[in-house]
Amino acid sequence: GEALEVNREVNCVTDFIHGCEDQLHTLKKQKEKGLLHGIPISIKDHINCKGHISSGGMVKFLGQVKEEDSIIVQVLKHQGAIPFVKTNILRTMINYDCSNLIFSQMLNPLNHLKSPGGSSGGEGALIAGGASILGIGSDVAGSICLPSSFCGLYGLKPTGNRISPSACCDSTFVLAVTAMLGPMARDVDSLALCMRALLCEKMFQLDPTVPPIPFDEEVYTSSKPLRTGYYEGD
């Protein structure tokens, strides 16, 4: 209901994922609970969900209903999460605004005269609007960072190849920088919880190209300062 309300205001949802209520009933019967048990989660439009399109904001993909969940969605479900909506994006996903010719312009829920940022702007708008507590976006050069910043949220672009990129909609371009899926939320601990859940044996079994390195709890909880490297020019 909240997602519908926020969507009416800012146009951030492209589809509701059918079967989420059935998944919830199934979870109630399970004895073993995953790290994300019962948590509703929003999914960026271009990430494949069974029975839905992954438009990428492009008309050419509208007729292509996906036959299976992408690996990240399979792992989220394995951990008890309930994907419930797909969220709006920028056409082709390479820019910092958020509009396309299919679902039109999105607005920032904090200020309807502003953009939510892109390309994961639907995720940013839905979470900032209070209708999702955890979402999955994607990032090449700011597509998680920018909407997180514009909408007052937290986001993480993981290290390249840390999470399986498999089965997103076919790209029409080749990128020199690794595109990565990653979490968006209202606090850092939620990002950490999502990464703990994703970096599990299920992920490593489904995609053997992902290095089988679990979440490093010791580094995350340590008070020792991290060393950060950067460069001033390229």
From TrEMBL:
Molecular-function annotations in GO: amidase activity; fatty acid amide hydrolase activity
Residue ranges constituting the Amidase domain according to the UniProt record: 5-233
Gene3D superfamilies: Amidase signature (AS) domain
GO biological process entries: fatty acid catabolic process
Domain of life of the organism encoding this protein: Eukaryota
Classification via PANTHER family: FATTY ACID AMIDE HYDROLASE (PTHR45847), FATTY ACID AMIDE HYDROLASE-RELATED (PTHR45847:SF8)
Protein name: VDHAP protein
Organism: Sakesphorus luctuosus
Gene that this sequence comes from: Vdhap
